[in-house]
Amino acid sequence: MAATSLFSNFVASPRSLSQNSSLRCLVPASSAAFPTTRKYGAAVVRATQSDTVVEYGRKELISLTRPLHDYILQNIREPEVLRELREETMATMKGEETSVSPDQAQLLSMLVQIHGAKNCIEVGVFNGYSSLAIALALPEDGHLVACERDAQCVEFAKRYYKRAGVDHKVDLRHGLAVDALNSLLERGDIDKYDFAFVDADKVMYPTYYEILLKLVRTGGLIVLDDVLWSGKVADTSANDAITSSIRELNKNIFQDKRVNISMVPIGTGMTICRKL
Ligand SMILES: C[S@@+](CC[C@H](N)C(=O)[O-])C[C@H]1O[C@@H](n2cnc3c(N)ncnc32)[C@H](O)[C@@H]1O
To answer: Sorted alphabetically, which Pfam families does this protein's record hold (predicted)?
Structure first.
């Protein structure tokens, strides 16, 4: 894949990634955070006329093949109730592929636990797989506000919260997520939440992100799913509305000084943002 400009203000390397085993990053010309010459350990930095191309050493990259992903999944400690939920989804619901993968759910639950999160939000519940993983990771007095517009999904998820014995932790809001989030703002939940997970309509991500930055406390996490969009964000021939909106979001979050970030290539890509 030729690394030609992904974003209008990013510069492309003259060599393609596939021709070169080194890792590289396209750095925005205008970003004040980056001087034109930088060193990342052994990484090589080359300056072009107005932009910078950074080579990040020669760390080996793994392509996540199906057998390798199967191997990872065999090493997941998936709670029984989540496995049952997943299997019933596959047997009875359409769109099971939109749910996070078990390795993603395990990471979400680990983040909640590491963070000692008590108050959480999820935007986009579907069958309840990720929200149940979060609820199971919460302490007994933990609380998750979960937003979902589809009535059938709401009923399915509620059944599993009950089966897992965590229904007392989950406040499932049926309706548009933006309305639910705004109602939290209106009732004064500013800086109240420790953790938020966004996995719904992609074009609304910037709106959810801005509202969540108000609802989440300093040091709290906002995790956004699908940020690599099956790799389409790096495919210059993919310019559909959703891919373009995710690229724009990724660029804006990269430049957003209100958060620390880590983009993790798990599932279809997750960005973990920590509010500063
Ligand atoms: C990708 S699925 C969520 C999967 C879920 N997080 C999981 O991993 O199990 C997206 C869900 O968001 C819901 N959704 C999409 N747009 C929404 C909106 N504007 N308000 C509320 N829910 C929405 C859809 O109905 C769908 O169930």
So the answer is: Methyltransf_3
